[in-house]
């Protein structure tokens, strides 16, 4: 039976960035726009499948970059993977403008301002041709280094690495690396590229180039080496830079240690008592995990029916009886509310926002938009830790 979905997520017609004062600095406000829908309001399954495929490819690629940079396999590498893919302070307002629901905001390199997707699951900053115009910037420098990345749909980004002055959420840093692709690799509407916010050990650029937030840290442009994602459906989503905005949380922030050498923002945790690892990734729409663990979790949820589709596993439930899904981190539970638990409907039943996927190179869960919409997450690069609290 073909699974037709009707998303319950609201659409935002346009995106904009607003800088606003807050107790901890400037804030970039984000608005969410969803492109997983067809014109008739059904889910674009090609886009959903492509998102899952892109995710598998992304992590396979970054696992390889980790080995290049660190000289060893990543500790999360899954040797038993079923099918490897062949393929001061400030705040930035984020806009979800991609079919994969990445969160975007404004950034400036030299005299070029543009919207870019902010991704806690990668480390490099890359843009389409024409987005960054080095000839219009007196501070631009073309380096002798080049970059090359590839994507699951055989799209490649190949080009030169430049350095230039950067303004990000009202914060400034000099000689920050940006990759200018020779061909268009990102067709995301208003967004023209991607900016990674993970640790340097998974970056594709040479080690001498700091990722954007690391550059702000090293140049002492941030009051604290901390950034904070608070994602919400519709309006009100923010990326806060240089500190913690406590107005975004309604409970004590619970911290867990992370290992910066791992590259990703990783923590131990469990779902419905199933122990696993979590990767917190703002560049992912759903909650995606290994097929076997997702099936085990679904079996623990009364009234939830699994549906297999090629290399993926999805599930549906009675919309009037949403399941209670508990994510536990450091002994603290975070429940998905009804809106988080479902991202659409199929024949009157809600579709679970948890998805199993073959091809992931690690036996870990990627917690994306569906999880982060209920939790404000603090990424503390100075103390090598992550903090979680229910969002206000």
Automatic annotation (TrEMBL):
It is an enzyme of class 3 (hydrolase). Residues 103-389 form the Peptidase A1 domain. CDD domains: pepsin_like (cd05471). PROSITE patterns: ASP_PROTEASE, PEPTIDASE_A1. This is Aspartic protease. The gene is pr1_1. Residues 127-146 are annotated as: Disordered. It comes from the Eukaryota. One of its GO terms (molecular function) is aspartic-type endopeptidase activity. PANTHER family: BETA-SITE APP-CLEAVING ENZYME, ISOFORM A-RELATED, PEPTIDASE A1 DOMAIN-CONTAINING PROTEIN. SUPFAM superfamilies: Acid proteases. Keywords: Aspartyl protease, Hydrolase, Protease, Signal. InterPro entries: Aspartic_peptidase_A1, Aspartic_peptidase_AS, Pepsin-like_dom, PEPTIDASE_A1, Peptidase_aspartic_dom_sf. Belongs to the peptidase A1 family. One of its GO terms (biological process) is proteolysis. Its EC number is 3.4.23.-.
């Amino acid at each position: 039976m073909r699974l037709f979905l009707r998303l319950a997520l609201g659409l935002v017609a346009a995106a904009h960035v607003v800088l606003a004062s807050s107790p901890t600095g400037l804030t970039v406000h984000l608005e969410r726009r969803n492109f997983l829908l067809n014109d008739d309001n059904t889910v674009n399954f090609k886009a959903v499948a492509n998102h899952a495929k892109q995710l598998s490819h992304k992590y396979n690629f970054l696992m390889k970059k980790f080995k290049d940079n660190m000289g060893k396999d990543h500790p999360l590498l899954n040797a038993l993977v079923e099918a490897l893919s062949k393929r001061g302070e400030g705040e930035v307002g984020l806009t979800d403008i991609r079919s994969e629901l990445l969160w975007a905001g404004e950034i400036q390199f030299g005299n070029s301002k543009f919207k870019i997707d902010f991704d806690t699951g990668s480390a490099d900053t890359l843009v389409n041709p024409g987005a960054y115009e080095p000839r219009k910037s007196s501070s631009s420098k073309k380096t002798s280094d080049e970059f090359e990345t590839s994507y699951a749909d055989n799209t490649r980004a190949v080009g030169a690495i430049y350095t230039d002055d950067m303004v990000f959420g009202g914060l400034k840093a000099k000689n920050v690396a940006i990759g200018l692709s020779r061909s268009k690799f990102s067709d995301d509407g208003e967004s023209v590229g991607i900016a990674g916010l993970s640790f340097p050990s998974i970056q594709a650029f040479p080690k001498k180039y700091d990722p954007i937030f690391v550059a702000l840290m090293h140049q002492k442009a941030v009051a604290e080496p901390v950034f904070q994602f608070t994602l919400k459906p519709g309006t009100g989503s923010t990326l806060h830079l240089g500190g913690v905005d406590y107005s975004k949380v309604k409970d004590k922030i619970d911290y867990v240690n992370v290992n910066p050498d791992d590259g990703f923002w990783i923590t131990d945790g469990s779902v419905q008592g199933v122990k696993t690892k979590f990767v917190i990734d703002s560049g992912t729409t759903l909650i995606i995990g290994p097929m076997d663990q997702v099936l085990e979790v679904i079996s623990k949820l009364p009234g939830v029916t699994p549906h297999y589709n090629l290399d993926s596993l999805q599930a549906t439930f009675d919309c009037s009886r949403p399941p209670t899904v508990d994510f536990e981190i450091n002994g603290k539970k975070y429940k998905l509310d009804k809106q988080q638990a479902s991202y659409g409907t199929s024949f009157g039943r809600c579709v679970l926002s948890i998805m199993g996927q073959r091809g992931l190179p690690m036996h870990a869960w990627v917690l994306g938009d569906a999880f982060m919409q209920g939790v404000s997450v603090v990424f503390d690069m100075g103390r090598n830790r992550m903090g979680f609290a229910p969002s206000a």
